[in-house]
Amino acid sequence: MFPDEENKGYRFKPIYNGNEPILSSGGNAIVFKVTNEQGDLSALKLFNENIEGRFVRLTKISKYLENTSHSFFTPFKFVQKLIYVDVDDLREDEKFFPGVVMKWIEGESLETKLKKLVQDRDLGKIRKIAENFKDISIILLKEGVAHGDLKLSNILVDENLNLTLIDYDGMFVPTLTSETAIELGTPTYQHLNRELADYNSNIDHFSILLIYTSLLALSLNPLLYDAHNDGDNIIFNENDFKSPNDSVLFNYLFTLSEIKGFVYYLKLSALSPFIYIEDLINILNGIFPKPQINIFQKPLAVLSGDKGDLVWTTENCTYVRINGDELAMAGSKSFSFSDKNKFFFEYGNELLELQHEYVVNCYPKPEIISLSANNKDLKFDEELTLSWSAISFSRLILKYNQFEIDVTELSTYKIKNLGQSTKIKLLAFALETKYFTENILKVDVYYPIDLDITQDKRVVFPHRPVKLTINATNAQKITLEPLGVDLTGKKEYNVKTKSNLYFSIVAENKRYRQVFEGSIEVLSTPKYERKIVELPKLSLNIPSPIFQKINNIDSLTPKFERDFVKINKILDSFNLFLIILRIKIPFKSIKTKFISTTLKLLKYDEKK
């Protein structure tokens, strides 16, 4: 059932072959041969699998085809609700299915046509089809579009051997940039590394070269079809691409000089991890990229006797040899260069072998034989005269401080007021190169010494320190004589002596000397005679205590006080504290014990 209001007016009637409708199926679609109400033949393509984004993708492809005039394309229309199928379990809006309507092209598939031509040994027509296919391929490559699934069954051939491409589901057009592929094409026609992410104008590269090379091979030897066709391919199979070096078919086709170039680049593509083939249009036209080698030396300016590297890069090469040694396609190798060194390069591929002789030009090394000065230890106001001798140089440059002077034509040079110690460089540059060698001459400039010494004491007792404060400029060494003490770098120094000292402080550099004279007077130590002091003899006559009974204890207090006073006076009158101090016995302790003993005696008297 085809409701007009839903399918934009399309009504179709299937064409039958006997009792069966004429159709073909493959991939995820079925194509019916139908007629419309006017009797025009059309191809009605219906999908048996729903793929997300198909409507948008086919709409953009349809728009591109409508605007192209190429006869090998057939414009089509994609209809979102093309047919209506009354399915019980589906909602009404789910009973519509999309499809593609295009003009029916009379002809047979190239797959069928080729088989007949091979059986008939019609090599000329096979070659004609190959060239027609090449022309279509070049147009696709130039316009930046790709079919996406090029194979013999997707190419129709009419009676004049004109070709038409069909099945545009996987096609790439510029408006689909940044999209992802929805299919990978038929495996036997695709590069082994192709992925869905590979979706651009280059995805047909491998298929184009494969189909063209296969058709050319069959136009030379149709027996290859029966020997290598398995129903899904032309003549190459997956094993040929996995191991092309071991492939019987690849090895045989290399013996056919007419197609050797196409076979070689198909083999290279199979071995490559990349699915794209550089410069494919020229390859299809038989213009094969020549092997190229780029050689240079490092450093570019080579000095005789020095080691250097030969560096090379190649394009379109499968081997490189230097003086017979097999090397990588790009790299470097170290050599000891001498003048007119020759290196013999052999390079190329299975199509072409080339040779190249590389000659190294060496230059003698510049040499500075001598560099001298009238004096390398210069007073600040003296003039410096430099002299030198050099050979094998293109330029001589003298450098010092901030100055750079070309002295190529000179052998001596005078410098007034050098000002400071300086490293003077003489640079000799080699012939025809920036390489240089240099000699360095160190010239030291000396200024008068300023020496300032202060001395904190001039008269001291023996071994008492005398501090010297030292302030010196422009001095390399400072020495205290005659003690031989190195004072270099010191700001202070303490001198100790037991007798009078006359000294000098000498500050010097290689051209100047400054001396400070000083002295220290040492006083004699006072002498004392040692005497023994005889202490006075003490005689204490303490009367024997008289004890009497006291009835009233209160009457004792005045007598106690008087006794204490007497005892203290006795102790004070004889300076007993001096004696106690001499023998290191605490006076207070003796006094306390003495009083305590007396009191005890008095108490004893009281008891008695």
UniProtKB/TrEMBL annotation:
GO terms for molecular function: ATP binding; protein serine/threonine kinase activity. It comes from the Bacteria. The keyword Transferase applies. Keywords: Kinase, Serine/threonine-protein kinase, Transferase. Residues 17-275 form the Protein kinase domain. Transmembrane segments: none annotated. The keyword rRNA-binding does not apply. This is Serine/threonine protein kinase. It comes from Runella defluvii.
